[in-house]
Amino acid sequence: MTRIDAWGFATGTPATAPDDHGRGPETAEPDHATHTTAGTRPAKPTAAGRRSAHLEREEDEPQRTARAALTRILEPGDETAGRWLRERGPVALWHTLSDDTADPPAGATPAKIAGLRLRAGRARPTADLDAITALGGRFLCPGDDEWPRQLDDLGDARPVGLWVRGTGNLRLWALRSVAVVGARACTEYGAHLATTLGAGLADRGWTVVSGAAYGVDGAAHRGALAADGATVAVMASGVDYAYPRGHTELIDRIAEQGLVVAELPPGDHPTRSRFIQRNRVIAALTRGTVVVEAELRSGSLVTARRALALGRFTMGMPGPVTSGLSAGVHQLLRGEAAVVTDADEVIELVGSIGDLAPERAGQTRIRDLLDPVTSRVLEALPARGSTDTAHLAQEAGTPRDVTQSKLFELLSLGFVQRCGERWELARRAETTDGSRRGGP
Known about the structure:
Order of helices and strands: EEHHHHHEEHEHEHEHEHEHEHEHHEHHEE
Radius of gyration: 31 Å
Strand content: 5-15%
Distance between the termini: 61 Å
Oligomer: single chain
Largest sheet: 9 strands, mixed
Shape: elongated
C-alpha cells in the first residue's frame, strides 16, 4: 500500500489518503463528489439531488458575497480581522463593519473599526464579482473545490478569498508547485538561473509560482511559459491591475497560459505592506521556495523564511561571494535552507519517492581506470629521461616479467614510449573523454 502525503505524493504505507492538510477521513471536510466502486458507473443525480445542490449554491451566495466585500475592507494578512472572521463568519462580520450602530468585535480599537467602516462604505461586492466574471475569472472561497487547502496553514492570516484569472485549476496546480523568487535588480547570472530553473521545472510538470515582479520573478515566469508549462503569478494588487506596468504584457500572457491570483478585488492597487503579505501566500501555496539572488534585506528572504516556518522546503541557488545580490541567499544557506543548482535537485527535495537528481561526478580519466600494479609501474617512470625494465621493476616493487607486461599495456594506452631497451613517459596531453588511445 502507498501513503499519499498532504500534497498527493507517495511517501510510504498506510491506510487512508488524507486531504490537502494531511488529515484522515475522520477529520477531513466532506467531499461532495460522487464516489464509485471499481467497475461501476457513477449514479445519475436524482431530481432531489439536483434541487439540493441548487439550494446549497443559493445558500452559499451570501457567504461568497460577504467574503468578496471583506476583501475590499480588510487588509491581507490581518490576523485580528481573521480571528473575527473565524468567530463570527463572513456575513455577520460584513454586517458588523457596515453598520455604525453595531457592536464592534471583541478587542477592536475605535480607530481600527472607524477605518474599516469607512472602507465598508465603498464595498460593492456584486460589482466586483461581475467584474471578475467579465475578465473570464472567478472568486474562490475556502471550502470551494478549487480552494488550495494548504493555505489554511496560515491560520487567521489565511486569505479571505482569492480572485483568479485563467482557466487552470488552482488547487490541482498548487499540488505540484515551486516558488521561485529573488532580486528585482538581478544580474544576468540571476536572470539566467531563474529562466533555466523555471523552464526546467515546467518541463517536468511542475507549476512555477512567483510574484510577476521585475528581475528573478519575471525571468522564472518567462522560463515556464517558454517551456509551455504552468505558472502562477500571485499579485499584490487586483488581478486586472498590472504591476509593474512594464510587465503588463507578461501578466496578460500568464493569465492566458497560466493563472493570475490576488487577495485584493479587481482594480485595487499595491502598497508596500501588500507586497510583504503577498509573500506569505506564495510560501503557503507551494511545496517549496527557491531563492535566486537576494540582498540581505530582500523581500524574497521574507518568503523563504515564511516557507520555512510553515514547514515547506526552503532552497537557495548560490552565487559569487563577492556579489551583494548573493549575500542574502548565502545567509539563508548557512541556516536551514538547502543548496540547489538546477530543477532536478529542486524536484528531488519537493517531489515524491524516486524523484532523484542524477548523480554527478567529474570526468573519468584513463589513468583513473588503471589497476594498482599498472599505476605503480607508471609512477616509477622518471619525469624526465628514460630507464630500463630492471630499474622500473625495482622501483615499482614488481617482478620483472610483470613490469614488462604492464609497460606494454601502458604503451598501448599511450602513456609511455619505448626507446630501444629503455622506457620513458610519452609527451602528450591526457585525454578526458574516456576514449582509449593507441601507442605512439
